[in-house]
Amino acid sequence: MKLMNSGNLLSNRTRISALLLALMLLLLAGCSSTRPAEAGTSEVSGSTEETSLPTVTEPASENEASEPYSTKSSLPEGTDRMFYAHVNGKVLKILAAENSSADAFLDLLKSGDVPVEMHDYGSFEKVGPLGTTLPRNDEQITTEPGDVILYQGDQITIYYDVNNWSFTRLGKVQDLSQAELKDILGSGNVTVTFSLSEGRMEPESSKVLVVIFSRTGHTKPLAEYIAEDLNADLYEIEAKVPYTDDDIKYYTNCRADREQNDPSARPEIAGELPDVTGYDTVFIGYPIWHGQAPKIIYTFLEGVDLSGKTIIPFCTSHSSPLGTSTENLHPLAPDAAWMEGRRFAIGTTAGEISEWVKSLDILSGQPADTGVFDFEKQTVLLNSGYEMPIIGLGTWTLSDDEAENSVYHALKSGMRLIDTARYYGNEVGVGRGLQKAIDEGIVTREDVFITSKIYGGNYERAGGIIDDALKDLNVDYIDLMLIHQPGYDDEGVYKAMEDAVRAGKLRSIGISNYYTKEQVDEVLSFATIVPAVIQNENHLYYQNTELQEYASQYGIVIESWYPFGGRGHTSEHFGNEVIKELAEKYGKSSAQIILRWQLQAGFIAIPGSSNPDHIAENYDIFDFELSKEDMQRIRELDQHERYENW
Predict the structure, then answer these.
(1) The whole model's pTM is what?
(2) What distance in Å separates the CA atoms of residue 102 and residue 135, rounded to the nearest whole number?
(3) Residues 424, 477, 494, 554: which is the catalytic one?
(4) Tell me: the pLDDT tens digits for 224-281?
(5) Which helix (H) or strand (E) holds 509?
(6) Contact at 8 Å (CB) between 486 and 519?
(7) Is position 424 annotated as part of the catalytic site?
(8) Beta bridge partners of 560
(9) For the CA atoms of 145, 150, 152, 154, what is the dihedral angle to 10 degrees?
(10) Alpha-carbon torsion (364, 365, 366, 367), positive or negative
C-alpha cells in the first residue's frame, strides 16, 4: 500500500480512537440522553429518516477502512481518497475504501477519466463493464445505498438499494439520500464517468471526435460543420505519401484504382494517430472511391481502438451512395456501435448538416431511432448499429431442399430476412437458396440478413459450431446469432459469440426463448455486448408486452417465431372474429392482418412457409396500416397463453 494510503488508514484509526474516547466521557458524564440511531435508520439533515435497509453486520476485512460509511456524512477536509462520478449533469462524491482494489482504481483514474456504460440490474443497482480487471478483495456483504462495488474484478456497480453477495468495496457515495441517488442515476442505460476531478466536466460535446479524409477538400467543410455544431475535436487524416491529381484519375490504373482493388492495401498515415480514449462518439468522413471508402480509412480504423464507442460514418460524392462502404468498415471496429451513415452532396450547407446532427441525438448515449421500425425501408436499427429487416422467412421443419426453394422464393418476393438454426439441420439448404438468388442477380450477400442459432454447451464447443454454421451457410459472416434457448453454460456460449463478433464472423448477437426479466438480467450480468434481439414465441394470444417494454431500455428488439400460433393453432388464429372482420375491412387476408399487427406493435416477424404464394402474401403487408383503434382491439386478444414449453 502506498505511503499516503497508509497515512490515511492511520488517520482513520486515530479519529476512531478519539471518537471512542469522547463517547466514553459523555457516557460517564451522563450526557447520552439521546438514543443512538437504531439499525435501519440514518440521519438526514438532523432528522431521523426511517428505512428498512439492514445494517452491515459482517466484520470488516483488514483491507477495509475501519470507519463505517454513511449516506450522509461530514467528511474531513483535505481527504485524498475522494473520487467522483459524473452522471446526468450531476456529480457524485465518493470516498474510496481502504483496500488494494480501491488503490488500483484510484491509480487507474490518474491516467484519465473512466466512462462506464451502466444499466439497471434487478431493482437495486447500476452495473457496467469497467474495461479492465482490478485486484479483488471479495467478502460476503449486504450493500447499502451509495455503495460502489467491484464485481468479479471487471465490473463496477453503484447500489441504490440492498443486495447480499460476495463483493469488493471500492467506495461510498457521500451526502446523498437513497431517493436522491436513485433519482440522479435515473432509469435505463446511462454513461457514468469516474474521475479524480470534482470540477465541472467538459461539455458532453467535447467527447466527440470528427475524423476526416478529404483529398479534394469537398468532405472537409462538412466535418468542420459537425465539429463546430458539437464543439467537437477534429482530426484530419493525411497520407504519408500525398495523393496527387494523377493518383485519383479513376480507371487509368492510377494509385486509387490499384489501392481500391487490393484488399490488403493500407496506405500509411502521416504523423501520429489521435488518442481516442476520452471520446464516446467518433464521426468518420470520407469521399467515395470506386463505391467504397478510401483504403486509408481502413488504415485508421485498424490503428486505433474504438471498442465501446459509437461510430457515425458520412461521405461526399457527386452521385455515388454510401452503399456498402460503411458495412465493409464494420469488421475493422467490431466492438464499436456503428450507426447508419449518410451521403451528402458536394456543397451541402452548414444548416443541413446541423439538422442531420440534431436528428442523431448522439448525446443521449444511443441513436434516437434505435429499435424504431422504419416502414419505408422495412428495417429496424439494432443496438449493434446494424439494420435488420422487420419481416422475413422462418425455416423451422424445412428440409434442405425445401429450405433452398423457400429461401430463393422469399428473396425473389422481396424479403431480405432469413431465419434458420443449427438444430433445424437445413443451413446447407438455406445457403444454396441464397447463392441461387445471388447468381441470378436478385440480391447480393450484403442485401440479405441471415439469422442462425446455437444451443448451449461450452465456450470451446460454441466457437467450433459457429465455424460450422458459416461453412454450411457458405457465407463469410452471419448477421445475427442467437443462443437457441437457456441451457448449459450460457455464459460460455455467449462469450464465444462475443469473440466471434470481434473476429468479424458475427455482426450481432442475441438470445431466443428467454421470457422473463430475470432471464434477461442473467444474460446482462455477464454480457459485454448487449443482446440485440430476443426471439420468442409471440402471437395473438401471447403478446408479452411486459418483456418488450423491459428490453427496450437496452435497445433490444423482440422477434416473433410462430406469429400465427404455430402448427395446430394457425386456423384458430386466422378464424378469430376480430381478425376476420379486420381482414374484410382492409381487403387483406387474416395472415396479412396478423403480420401487420406484429410489425406495428414493434415485433419482427418470421412466418414459416414452403409455399411460394404464401411467402409472397406474407411479404405484401406494406401498402396498408392498421388504425390505433384496430391495434387496440388486437391488443385486447392477449390471453398470456403460450403453446410451447421451450
Answers:
(1) 0.50
(2) 9
(3) 424
(4) 989 887 878 999 999 999 999 999 998 899 999 999 999 999 999 999 999 998 888 8
(5) strand 506-512
(6) yes
(7) yes
(8) 536, 605
(9) 130
(10) positive
